[in-house]
Amino acid sequence: NIEEKYRGRIIYSNTTCELNLGPLVKEDEGEYTLTVVTRQGKQQSSQIDLEVLG
């Protein structure tokens, strides 16, 4: 699910599992987790801490 504050700013690729967020604002700072679930039910998660500079 995508929260309302991110709608229109997220691009996700099902092929590469790449997630792009932008343009960034200071309020976007924090920890993010992306969880991908395959058709077979396998899950893989990745976390990142985002710091917005400027």
TrEMBL record:
Which protein is depicted? Immunoglobulin I-set domain-containing protein
- InterPro entries, alphabetically? Ig-like_dom_sf (IPR036179), Ig-like_fold (IPR013783)
Q: Which organism is it from?
A: Cirrhinus mrigala
Q: Extract the Gene3D superfamilies matched here.
A: Immunoglobulins
Report the domain of life of the source organism. Eukaryota
